[in-house]
Design a protein that fits this description.
The complex is a heterodimer of chains A (about 500) and B (about 260). Chain A has 13 helices and 19 strands. Chain A is α/β, with parallel strands linked by helices. In chain A, the strands form 2 sheets. In chain A, strands 1, 2, 4, 6, 7, 9, 11, 12, 14, 16 and 18 form an 11-stranded mixed β-sheet that branches. In chain A, strands 3-5-8-10-13-15-17-19 form an 8-stranded parallel β-sheet. The longest helix of chain A is centred in the first third of the chain and has 24 residues. Chain B has a domain of about 180 residues: P-loop containing nucleotide triphosphate hydrolases (Rossmann fold), CATH 3.40.50.300. Classes of the chains: A alpha/beta (about 500), B alpha/beta (about 260). At the A-B interface, helix 10 and helix 11 of A face helix 2 and helix 3 of B.
Amino acid sequence: MPAVSETREAVEKLAKSNYEWGFETNVEMDLAPKGLNEDIVRLISARKKEPQWMLEWRLKAFRAWQEMSEPNWAKIKHPPIDYQDAHYFAQPKKKAGPKSLDEVDPELLKTYEKLGIPLHEQEMLAGVEGAGQKTPVAVDAVFDSVSVATTFRKTLAEAGVIFCPISEAIIEHPELVKKYLGTVVPVADNFFSALNSAVFTDGSFVYVPKGVRCPMELSTYFRINARNTGQFERTLIIAEDQATVSYLEGCTAPQRDENQLHAAVVELVAMEDAFIKYSTVQNWYPGDENGKGGIYNFVTKRGLCKGDRARISWTQVETGSAITWKYPSCILAGKGSVGEFYSVAVTNGHQQADTGTKMIHLAPDTRSTIVAKTISAGKSDSTYRGLVRMQPKARNGRNFTQCDSLLIGDQCGAHTVPYIESRNMSARIEHEATTSKISEDQLFYCRSRGFSEEEAVGLIVNGFCREVLKELPMEFAVEAQKLLQISLEGSVG
Amino acid sequence: MSDFLKIEGLKAQIDADGTPKEILKGLDLTIPKGEVHAIMGPNGSGKSTLSYVLAGREDYEVTGGSAHFKGQDLLELEPEERAALGVFLAFQSPVELPGVNNANFLRTAVNAVRKARGEEELDAVSFLKLAREETSRLSMSGEMLKRAVNVGFSGGEKKRNEVLQMRLLKPSLAILDETDSGLDIDALRIVADGVNSLRGPDFSSLVITHHQRLLDYIVPDRVHVMAHGRIIHSGGPEVASLLEKQGYKQFLEAAA
């Protein structure tokens, strides 16, 4: 695949080069200076060899962003973010990473061990400087995944499915990108989506043609350059009439990143009778035991059921990040279209999560299901925030919402904030909510059967989340179960 | 025969709205290896507390005395360590675990205990075979393995599920806390058979009950009468029928 080898060459070239300040002319540099202005946006676009229309799109977004201010309605607290004190363009070589695993938070390493991750992969996940470039084993690993990706690409190409980095799609498939990018999440939708639109560096692009059932689960894991696009990721998935696709994002291993601020945008478009299933396991570094150094994750995810009977299903398991701000939503514009949201959000330590969904019913006979499970432990705080809106034309629209919160210990918080707006008489909206604690009775019962306290907590939590976990693809579900238990270690007793 | 379970002068209290309330007040009890003993006593005499203290429930604070099992200080061990040592408590009110698959729960428990005892763990296939045999022995529907632990189970189903767990975990000391309550006569027979077939030189049991009825099916080697946190009388199986006829009064008066 020429595009892949090209990327690899570019990466290697940039990895060898040293950072220099003269950013406007120096094509060898790997890090733009701090700050965000039009020149930086132009630089990103130029470095990506983007067409003019893309640059203009980015500039429009940037100008909109400048007029906007950070949303403050979420139940999260953090020191003010200085958007001028960050780099908006960095090539793979990392400047700020730890020199070796010795410098990495030992708690993080313990978790890797429990998940059974090989050493060289640990280095890459922990962001050790030069990992994957200087270690021969790690390089092999990278090359392996290239070949895996290549094989899969062939199978996909035979089915007519396009699955590539979005930067490549902008150049190779401009007509598709132009047609759909920003149609579900407009550039100025919110502060973070505007920021992402201006400065995104990469992400995934998926196009499934009419009548095609994508022959395999698509996963970011197989995308060669996925590792370095975490900060402002941009994903666009289009399923034409009767097309079906399942997309997996993320990884159960905790990932470190020197960029504290993450603001991804994901757009899904489902045409008539199409089905898009989008599964996420998010486990970004939550910070050390005092909550320092964790990732701020501000994500905009939205799906448009454009055609009749289209269906979009979001499943997420959120265990990482210091702050999670995320509301995967569905716009049900096609008659009889279906939106689903299954979520597990776990917070421990000092983590804060404000997450939920929006189901916007525009057309008749649309249906939506929301199952949100919130688990709070330690000193963490978790909020479910969801909107269900039935527009006047959404005759016979139906929604079922179930929000369950589980508290572990007595220093955490869980909040449920449902917004329900119904503008027609024929719509039916059901909302159920529960809050519970893991009872001493349950713990003792399990322990008297031979489970350790932590195993007992893991068992009870996995039971609590079962309705959501069963929505995940098989291998992912097994990993997610393990992850839930690990995330809550030390939260009792 | 060596003393298998030896309890001496056991005192335990529970926190009742901020003030400690003593429930066990110097209890002595010895169960030799291979014997089945019954404890009977009026409500509030401390029978359930004794079972919880032996299984390791943390809400109860042991303030005096000792309890040894197989020569080990039981009170020093965590509940899961006691399970590995062979202690099993069949709960009076089995706890519901929403979303936790019963078969999965049983297999994980069996393997946790087998591992701690240095035995080989069971793979999914051989476990399922074993579990099916045991459920049919207890006249339980195989469906119950697929359901969440105790969720939506009837009273009788919960009790059978306890006996199922006991049979799978193969304890050397089974404490049955009013396992007969809520069972009809057929279920009672099945449950009793489940216990009786475990009887042997390496299996001891402490059967806590209100009624003689259960003891018609599980015939104990000894019967103890418990009141006010102590054993006030011990005797052979005839004590149970005496109690059934005459009530606790004479024993209480004799102890006073």
